[in-house]
Amino acid sequence: MTQIDPQTGVPAPFRKMSERFRGYLPVVVDVETGGFDWNRHALLEIAAIPIELDSDGRFIPGEVACVHLDPAPGTLIDPKSLEITRIDIGHPFRMAKQEKEGLDHIFAAVRAAVRRHNCQRAILVGHNAHFDLNFLNAAVSRVEHKRNPFHPFSVFDTVSLAGLAYGQTVLSRAMQAADLPWNGEEAHSAVYDAERTAELFCKIANAWQPTT
Fold first, then answer.
1. What is the pLDDT of residues 11-20, one digit of tens each?
2. Are 129 and 155 in contact (CB under 8 A)?
3. Catalytic residues, which ones?
4. How far is CA 198 from CA 21, 76, 128, 132, in A?
5. Is pTM, for the whole model, over 0.85?
6. Vertex 71, ends 70 and 74: CA angle to 5°?
């Protein structure tokens, strides 16, 4: 049952994440890729940010886990995608990992957050979330990863949430409508886009407290 704030008479924020989303932990994910076809194009960057609770029970972005990936064997890269993301695949300081090692790094951080909040598993939060989930699932399938902490098909999509809350579906416009910072020069980096998406999700979720 939802707790009622005795001073205001309105529902109080949840004190346990495990009580809020049916035992799922929201984790914001953004990927940068070599194209739009998750079955053909390479996965090049992943950033993941678990949603945490502050001392007042309000949602806040957690610590980011990120990784650069070498293109998996057999995957393709559309040069036009690299023009948008400005990823230099051959850069000596990119420190890219093989797909299996990169997924291990991201999934270990996510599983630790799930355990910390006593949740059942993670649920992906993204802007056009199924794009990110489909690329993630394709990589999981390629390397036959056995410890994927994410729900295989359910997501929270900030496109829908921002459309409902602000009448905007483009991330940059939704951020501006929410009075949150946005720098177009830094966009299309997995870390930057994940951080902004996490801020947007938290602002919308904090404004909505269930009554039952």
1. 555 568 998 9
2. yes
3. 188
4. 16, 29, 13, 14
5. yes
6. 145
